[in-house]
TrEMBL record:
It comes from Apium graveolens (Celery). This is SOUL heme-binding protein. It comes from the Eukaryota. It holds the Pfam family DUF2358. Belongs to the HEBP family.
Length: 378
């Protein structure tokens, strides 16, 4: 056991007080340091609170950039082109299969697409999405002219464009496609999406109803159709041909004025109910015609009707469209729309673009269409 020696210092607390082991001078310094530390923490918390309540305002005029893009982007692929002075020299461009890190590379990519694909670019909207960020929504349709059948490659999506606040110019441009999930560079999913669109579809060189592609998902397109007129009669099955000769007779001159009317594509068959029990077969009439200028049908079972147009989801497929195949495609399309939160209407249409007696099955172009209750690109 340890025994205290007389020479060892003995500390005895005074009654009612706690005696510190530190000298008075050191105790004073320690208390001062604690006070300074507490004050600094309190001031730091106050500053952080002020920052949270009043974030620094951007010096970038975001509206000016939005207005500029509305004017400039429609010239992306025309002879005028975009204004390169609006971009930093070290602008960063990315899409799922392409990247460039300079304005020269960015413009080279645009020139290459223009030469090989003759693209059509449609700008839907431009919105600010951050103090130094703008997002655009667009549709781009490219025709691969190097292949004999000149396939159409359709891309829809958004571009997020960053602004450099020091130069007041665009410093980045990143594309996101609606048709794929992995939009990072280099996306094998994106490459496969391109390859799938190179397949052969035979589309006759005839007038079709006018529409604009708003969105292309992985399995379907969303289109806005302009109004069009059809001549129609009752059919038996969605994939059947019953009634075709009757409506074709109308455009071949069997009408009140014996007028011959130009053939169009596709031939529609429409099911008006979920059971597909009520079906009509329709031929679309040329767009220059209106209800007042068309001759009356000679037969009572033929009628003319104006389709008001609207938004439709479309699934495209090849091969001979038998009743079972069409029913399966309709089921796939409707399920996809419900999964994506869209509101499909009852019934559907089958669009057939080719003469089945003169076209190989594997290059036939067929589509199933379902009208949508409502649709927003936001």
């Amino acid at each position: 056991m340890s025994v205290a020696r007389l020479s060892d210092p003995i500390f005895r607390p005074l009654s009612g007080h706690i005696t510190s082991l530190y000298p008075p001078q050191q105790l004073k310094l320690n208390r001062t340091s604690v006070l300074v530390t507490k004050t600094m923490k309190r001031n730091w918390k106050l500053k952080m609170s002020m920052v949270e309540q009043s974030p620094p305002k951007s010096t970038v005029d975001i509206k000016q950039f939005v207005d500029f893009l509305y004017e400039d982007l429609p010239h992306l692929f025309d002879d005028q082109g975009i204004d390169r002075t609006a971009y930093d020299e070290r602008v960063k461009f990315r899409d799922p299969i392409t990247k460039h890190d300079s304005i020269s590379g960015y413009l080279f990519n645009i020139a290459m697409l223009k030469k090989i694909f003759t693209p059509d670019f449609y700008l839907h909207w431009v919105k600010p999405t951050g103090p130094y960020e703008i997002t655009t929504r667009w549709t781009m349709i490219m025709r691969f002219v190097l292949l004999p059948w000149k396939p159409e490659l359709i891309f829809t999506g958004t571009s997020v464009m960053g602004i450099n606040p020091e130069t007041n110019k665009f410093c980045s441009h990143e594309d996101f496609w609606d048709s794929i999930k992995n939009n990072n560079y280099f996306s094998l999913e994106g490459l496969w999406d391109v390859m799938k669109q190179l397949r052969i579809y035979k589309t006759p060189d005839l007038e079709t109803p006018k529409f604009q592609i708003l969105k292309r998902a992985s399995t379907y397109e969303v289109r806005r159709y302009s109004p069009f007129i059809v001549v129609e009669t009752d059919g038996e099955k969605l994939a059947g041909s019953s009634g075709f000769n009757t409506v074709a007779g109308y455009i071949f001159g069997k009408n009140s004025t014996t007028e011959k009317i130009a053939m169009t594509t596709p031939v529609f068959t429409q099911a008006f109910d979920a059971d597909m029990s009520k079906v009509s077969i329709q031929i679309v009439l040329p767009s220059e015609k209106d209800m007042d200028s068309l001759p009356d049908p000679n037969q009572e079972d033929i009628s003319l009707r104006k389709v008001e147009g609207g938004i439709a989801a479309v699934l495209k497929f090849s091969g001979k469209p038998t009743e079972d195949i069409v029913a399966e495609k309709e089921k796939i399309l409707r399920s996809s729309l419900l999964r994506d939160g869209l509101k499909p209407k009852t019934g559907c249409l089958l669009a057939r673009y080719n003469d089945p007696g003169r076209t190989w099955n594997f290059i036939m172009r067929n589509e199933v269409l379902i009208w949508l209750e409502e649709f927003s690109l936001d």
